[in-house]
Specification:
Blueprint lengths: L2 H55 L3 H8 L3 H42 L3 H17 L4 H53 L5 H31 L25 H47 L1
C-alpha cells in the first residue's frame, strides 16, 4: 500500500470526526445561548419574587398597607409560593445548563484530539494529486474532477457557516432590543409619571442595542448576497432609525422595525440550517468518493 495513501486515509477519518463534532458543538452552543438567556430571565424573576417577600416580612409601606386591609398573611403566602416556584425553575435551568456545559467540554476535548487535521490534509492532498497526475489515466481525471467539485462545495459550506453564525448573532441582538423596548413600554404604561432618569436610561440602552444590531444585520445582508443561486431570495428588508438622542424618544417606531426584522432573520435561519446540513453531508460523501478514487489509482 502507498504510504501517502495510508496517511491520507487517516486524515480523512480525522476530518470526518472533526466535522461531526463541530456540527454537534454548533447545535450545543445554540442551546447554551438559549439556556443562558432563560436563566437570566428567571434570575430576574427570582430576585423580584424574593424582594416582594422581604418587603412583606419587613416593616415597610408595602407591608403596612396589606396589614391594614387584612391581607398580609395571604399576600405573604402567595409571594412565598411564587418565590419558591421561581427558585425551583431557576435551579432546574441551572442544572440543565451545568449538564450541557459538561457535554460541551467533552466534545471540545474530543475536538482538540483532531486539531490541525484539516491543515495537514490540505498540505498532503496536493502531493497526492501531483503523484496521481503522473499516471495520466482516465481514473486520474476522475480524481481531479471529484476534487474540484469537493473544493467548490467546501467553499459553499464556508459561506453558509459565516451567514449562519451572523444570523444567530443578529437574532440574539434583535431579541435583546425587543425586550428592552417591551420593558420601556410596560414601564410607561404602569407609571404615568415615569421616572425621567430611568426612561432616559432605557432609551439609551435601546439605542445602544439597536446600534449593535445594525452592523451585524448589514454584514448578514452582505453574506447572504454571496451565497449561490440555490439560496437566492434570502434577504432582509429593514431600516433602523437610531439617530434620535432624545431621552423621550418614542419607542413605537423602533418596536415596528424590530418586530419586522426578527421574523425575517428567523426565516433565514430556518433556510440556512437545512442548507448547511445538506451541503455538509455532500462534502462528507465527496471526501469518501475522493478517497476511493485515489485508492484505485495509487494501489
Amino acid at each position: 500500500m502507498n504510504p501517502l495513501y495510508d496517511k491520507f486515509c487517516k486524515l480523512c477519518d480525522e476530518l470526518a470526526i472533526k466535522s461531526r463534532i463541530e456540527h454537534t458543538l454548533f447545535e450545543l452552543y445554540l442551546k447554551h445561548d438559549d439556556l443562558v438567556t432563560e436563566l437570566n430571565e428567571f434570575d430576574e424573576a427570582l430576585q423580584k419574587e424574593q424582594a416582594d417577600v422581604e418587603r412583606l416580612e419587613k416593616t415597610s409601606f408595602f407591608s403596612i398597607f396589606y396589614t391594614i386591609i387584612g391581607q398580609k398573611n395571604k399576600k405573604l403566602e402567595k409571594e412565598k409560593t411564587e418565590a419558591s416556584e421561581a427558585e425551583k425553575k431557576h435551579s432546574e435551568i441551572q442544572s440543565k445548563l451545568t449538564n450541557l456545559e459538561n457535554e460541551i467540554r467533552n466534545y471540545e476535548r474530543e475536538l482538540r484530539a483532531v486539531r490541525g487535521c484539516d491543515l495537514r490534509y490540505s498540505r498532503l492532498l496536493p502531493q497526492i494529486l501531483d503523484e496521481i497526475r503522473k499516471t495520466d489515466t482516465p481514473e486520474c481525471k476522475e480524481v481531479i474532477d471529484t476534487f474540484n467539485t469537493l473544493t467548490r462545495i467546501e467553499e459553499k459550506v464556508a459561506k453558509l457557516d459565516e451567514a449562519l453564525e451572523l444570523s444567530h448573532e443578529a437574532l440574539k441582538t434583535a431579541i435583546n432590543a425587543q425586550k428592552l423596548i417591551t420593558e420601556a413600554d410596560n414601564y410607561s404604561q404602569q407609571k404615568a409619571y415615569a421616572n425621567v432618569k430611568y426612561r432616559s436610561e432605557l432609551s439609551y440602552r435601546i439605542r445602544l442595542s439597536l446600534r449593535q444590531a445594525k452592523p451585524i444585520v448589514d454584514e448578514l445582508c452582505r453574506q447572504l448576497a454571496r451565497l449561490d443561486a440555490d439560496l437566492v431570495g434570502l434577504s432582509i428588508n429593514f431600516e433602523l432609525d437610531i439617530a434620535d438622542e432624545s431621552s423621550r424618544a418614542n419607542t413605537d417606531e423602533w418596536k415596528i422595525q424590530i418586530d419586522c426584522i426578527i421574523p425575517q432573520i428567523e426565516q433565514i435561519n430556518a433556510k440556512l440550517m437545512p442548507a448547511r446540513d445538506r451541503w455538509t453531508k455532500r462534502v462528507t460523501e465527496l471526501r469518501i468518493e475522493l478517497q476511493e478514487r485515489i485508492k484505485t489509482v495509487l494501489e
